[in-house]
Amino acid sequence: MSVPRSDYLFTSESVSEGHPDKVCDRISDAVLDLFLEADPYSRVACETLTTTNRIVLAGEVRGPDSITPQKIEDVARAAVKDIGYEQDGFHWKNADVAVHLHAQSAHIAQGVDAAGNKDEGAGDQGIMFGYACKETPVLMPAPIYYSHLILKRMAELRHSGEVKGFGPDSKSQVTLKYVNGQPVGATSVVVSTQHDEGLDQAGIRELVRPVVEEVLPEGWMCPEDEFYVNPTGLFVIGGPDGDAGLTGRKIIVDTYGGAAPHGGGAFSGKDPTKVDRSAAYAARYVAKNVVAAGLADKCTLQLAYAIGVSKPLSIYVDTHGTGNVDEAALETAISKAMDLSPRGIREHLNLSRPIYARTAAYGHFGREPDADGGFSWEKTDLVDAIKAELS
Question: Is 73 a catalytic residue?
Answer without folding.
Answer: no
